[in-house]
Amino acid sequence: MSLTAEILSVGTEILLGNITNTNATFLSQELSVLGINVYHHTVVGDNPQRLAEAMDIALGRNDLIITTGGLGPTYDDLTKQTVGRALGLEMELHEDILADLKARWERRGTVMPPNNEQQAWFPKGCTIIPNDWGTAPSCAIEKEGKTVIMLPGPPYEMKNIWNRYVAPMMQAWQDSVLVSRYCRVVNIGESALEERLSALLKNSLNPTIAPYAGGGETVLRVTAKAATREEAYALTVPAVEHIARECGDDLYAVDKDSMEQVVCELLRELGLRVATCESITGGGLARRITDVPGASDVFECGLVTYSDRMKYRLADVSLETLRAHSAISLEAAIEMAEGTLKQSGADLAVSVTGVAGPETLPQGEPGTVYAAVAGPLGTRAAKLTLLRSNDRDRNRINATGKALDYLRFYLLDLQRSKRG
Fold first, then answer.
1. Domain residue ranges of the chain, discontinuous segments joined by +
2. CA-closest candidate to residue 274, choices 295, 305, 249
3. pLDDT per residue over 7-51, tens digit each?
4. pLDDT per position as a tens digit, 150-193
């Protein structure tokens, strides 16, 4: 029988909507991969009475409760104390953790504030989980068939603790090994993709296949269960191969994190360096490429030519083109790419221009986007298809992703031409 879990997020700032609860999203996805059913997300403010009530309810209906937040040094960081009381456990001081906290402050050239001592107090009998990324150690408690895992609130700390310590610990609880692989698809909507893969999605029990959409792409999570990791991985192979046949080049990655990672790998394989020239995206294209570690091997430079004057001066877009077609046109995108290629000395250049919104312009509605790539295969340009939206940020983000994908297709064709 599958375990049931609840994610209990602690923090008034989450309750008031001041920050987005990304921790709950991450943990739900991770628990799903482990085959653990998450039936409840609960958010409670920094109030010990309401936290105690939420914990009592969670313990009554779940095998596993994961809390995030409330492990800090301030007066309202009371998660450990509240959980301890709910489980009938006294608090005890861990001298080794206290010594480590004091040493951290000494390395900074100062003395630890007295209130930080509470980070060294834990419910009696718990398992300490180290925090190599912050000052608040985590812990896990098992009692009477219930398990409570307490993690810090900052997402960077929480995710690293989960990946290094908690996920392996929970995997060890399983009778079998789970392997999940992620197939990332663009240019095919979630509904259309489900229809195309309907037989596979309906009939596949091990592995299971779960589609979800977001960020301009659809991800298919293929999860298999077996006695060993090798056997579980082997079970995923036929499903992944089926998805690859059905999606073709629109399947841009398997077991990779992002479009920009794939683009950088293609550039590196081809021994090429790229330059960017952007208008609508305001540098977003260059940022995504340079987010990839090692991007300096493949990225030459980025231009943000937002005004017509800068398109003319920096990217060699002719005044005739700007007058006849405007800066938001296929012709302008072509000259932006070709001019940037010439000016930068890169091996190829990608350009993107369009209408971000929210207002409609004479050149088009919000989401009207043109891109071009100039390089060894000559210059290619296209009007890109974005979902219609008046949301300026959404249009800029989607335009960045579409331009990256347009560059990827160019690189794939170049790769094929070199292979003969």
1. 4-173, 177-254, 259-419
2. 295
3. 999 999 999 999 999 999 999 988 988 889 999 999 999 999 999
4. 999 999 999 999 989 998 888 887 778 888 899 999 999 889 99
CATH number, span 177-254: 3.30.70.2860
Amino acid type, 178: L
**Token pair recorded at residue 252:** 């841009």
Are 51 and 10 in contact by the 8 Å Cβ rule? The answer is: yes
Q: What are phi and psi of 171, to 5 degrees?
A: -60, -35
CATH 3.90.950.20 matches 259-419 = yes
SS3 375: strand
Q: Helix H segments across 291-385?
A: 308-315, 319-325, 330-344
The enclosing H or E element of 371 equals strand 369-375
Tell me: the pLDDT tens digits for 285-320?
Answer: 999 999 999 999 999 999 999 999 999 999 999 999
pTM: 0.78
Q: How many CB atoms lie within 10 A of CB 177?
A: 16
Residue 381 and residue 406: Cα distance in Å, rounded? 9
* Cα R_g (the chain), whole angstroms: 26
Hey, what CATH topology would domain 4-173 get? Molybdenum Cofactor Biosythetic Enzyme; Chain A (3.40.980)
Contact status, residue 354 vs residue 328, Cβ threshold 8 Å: yes
